Amino acid sequence: MYERARGADSPWHDYLRLIPDCEPVPLVWPEDEAARLLAGTELDKVKPSPVQISRQTVKQDREFLCEDWKECIEPLISSGELGVKPDDLSLEKYFAAKSLLSSRSFRIDKYHGSGMVPLADLFNHKTDGEHVHFTKSDDSDSDEEEDGDDQSNADSDEEEDGDDQSNADSGEEGDVDQSNIDLVEEKDDDDQSNASADEPSTVENSTAKPSGEGYNDEDLEMIIVRDANPGDEVYNTYGTMGNAALLHRYGFTELDNPYDIVNIDLTLVTKWCSSKYSHRYAKARVSLWHKLGYSGCTSEDAEYFEISYDGEPQLELLILLYIIFLEPEVYDKLVCVAEDLVGDDDQHDEQDTIDSFAKVVEVTRPAKNGVEKLPDVKKLLQSESIGSALSSIADNRESLYGSSTLKDDEEKLRTCSPVGERNIYHSLVLRVSERKILGRLRKHACSWPKTKKRKHT
């Protein structure tokens, strides 16, 4: 914002002339339009937390950035120390600058932090179809381990910048999200699953330190990981992100994005349970579930469950529903021994969760010859009652989108222009994607075996 205000006096003037004034991320949409188009989606959650995606809302983004501007920028304007026009540092231009920084800045390394890198931001994103990666030529093993083991490491750096938002399918937007692609290392093993067969060796060579005349240990290297034919657009990847994250950070979406998810808040589950039983009943069952060491995904003071692209519900949600449906006498028995069932270690993966659930089953369904085999234990979570509950919860989650149906949204999307009606188009892609996942969840739940009814003689 300051460098732009300096005009031709800025050493970055030529570069700044080439990039747009802002990126069309939801942050800079008209406020009423953003509220209307994003209603019910993952970007409309009332949740004061940063992005994973970020689970914070566009409204919260605006509020946080307004606070930042008043605290940091307004005093500079009043002081007159920068020697630029006050209008060049306005709140509107602050939002615009934030959209560019979040979309075009790279996570460079621990010393430099994040920064904009001319030329490196030319490439558009393509999920599981990128041709190039960027890496810093003096990468070290220690840097790779520290900066590359988790995409969320860089997310935290960018949450303070008002969420990573950018816009990459307009032709000029080849931006790399610093929260997913660290220049300090070539880290994205998971992100390269669909790359060409010779990719591993190419990426491995990216850590080799070149030598010779002209070599600079602060150079950036562009590593080719997939062949491109003459005339083809060359893509980068911003990481394995669903459409909510892509729209939030970059201002675009992808049809049939395999990394899409839908989150179901714990409050939605307890609301369903309260309507079926009572608020007191729901509170007690959730309390026991927590006491046994289970939890959903957490984000500050909120808790939620992820539903994967194929409609698979998070295991912890199934265990909670299992506990909700326990008969009173079995529930009481489990309460008495709950503390003895909790291990010393946290549950790190699905197998740990299943193993801990097997201990619960030993109490709730004791067998003559010991606890059921592990596959049988897992089948207990695929009962007709749990499936019915999932369908009801999915209906409640989908009601957040309003009165329109999935068919309505698909028809609107079919006739919508991704250029002339950009905001509408990408919000519809997000809505349709999420609603299809909820549909798969229902189908998934309905496929579970029905309880056999006894014949009366």
UniProtKB/TrEMBL annotation:
EC class of the enzyme, as a word: transferase
GO BP terms: methylation
Keyword match Chaperone: no
InterPro entries, per database record: N-lys_methylase_SETD6, SET_dom_sf, SETD3_SETD6_MTase
Positions of the UniProt region annotated as Disordered: 131-217
GO molecular function, one term: protein-lysine N-methyltransferase activity
Annotated keywords: Methyltransferase, Nucleus, S-adenosyl-L-methionine, Transferase
Domain of life from the UniProt record: Eukaryota
Biased composition (Acidic residues): 140-176, 183-192
Annotated Gene3D superfamilies: set domain protein methyltransferase, domain 1 (3.90.1410.10)
GO CC terms, sorted: nucleus
Subcellular localization: Nucleus
EC number: 2.1.1.-
Family: Belongs to the class V-like SAM-binding methyltransferase superfamily. Histone-lysine methyltransferase family. SETD6 subfamily.
Purpose of the protein: Protein-lysine N-methyltransferase.
Record protein name field: N-lysine methyltransferase
Source organism: Triticum turgidum subsp. durum (Durum wheat)
